[in-house]
């Protein structure tokens, strides 16, 4: 069915043929303009911009090929159908080469063939125009997407730099203790975070946290963790003017738990943290739903430390316990996020967890050795965030 208002232009110096074509097409629902000369046809075309042109190849005032060329150069999406008497094939080829969409031979015995050719050319032209519009829309969308991706990449780069600036130096030596860490994000930003710092002249604190999820939202929570622990330490130091600070790991986890719940971010954290008292050479630590548990390596043997607790930021009634152990003269303590387990062979999570102390024992509790044993490289992209923190004293 023809769209209303479709205008055609017939250019032919044969008035009988021209009128025959025009009358038939008007009866078929088209608006038809007529021109007996090429220049008149070009003027009508410029003024009315018809959707299709039918023309003869042999017109007194201009070559039909030149007429087609001028039309298609000015309006390449407008189809031109040649309706001409039988001639040499070279004329037909040249007409098609310069832009004609179809070629019909006079006399037109069956005008239904003409109507079919017109509708087919119009359909093809409209399809080309629509495809072009779609391509243009896709190109615009792609440009917008590229701009958005660039903005996102710039934002992520800035966020990544913020995270890197928040991380402690690695390695970091304080008196007889040495701490170092590695974080390999699954995305540009990491939901894993580690920190260690002096609490007082005789106290050293550390923690490893694994925020649920990945990407920017999880990375944002690591910023909150840094802020909350720093603020809590500041408040505690104001109360204790001199000497050791009552910076208990269970209190830190409880404070973060309440803060995350009140923020309503929909994020929770598994974490473990500890405080070393260098006067008594004891470690007090607390577990917040974190697996694997910390691994202590000493005297050539590695074993998991014990402890339990609920994830941080999920339960209002969560309580966290402190576990205290005497530290050996020579040891290393390895803390890992659960992403490390993805790098260990094993059919089940229990099997992988059982292998971790063996690997730490095989590498002597050394960070570089463990990274190599796990097949990890800081430049890798992993399916999950991976973080490792190793705390040691007089390692052998």
TrEMBL record:
The keyword Hydrolase applies. Residues 124-158 form a coiled coil. GO terms for biological process: phosphorelay signal transduction system. Keywords: Coiled coil, Hydrolase. The lineage of its organism: unclassified sequences, metagenomes, ecological metagenomes. GO terms for molecular function: phosphatase activity. PANTHER family: STAGE II SPORULATION PROTEIN E, STAGE II SPORULATION PROTEIN E-RELATED. Residues 7-121 form the Response regulatory domain. Transmembrane segments: none annotated. This is Response regulatory domain-containing protein. It comes from marine sediment metagenome. Gene3D superfamilies: 3.40.50.2300, L1 transposable element, trimerization domain, PPM-type phosphatase domain. Pfam families: Response_reg (PF00072), SpoIIE (PF07228).
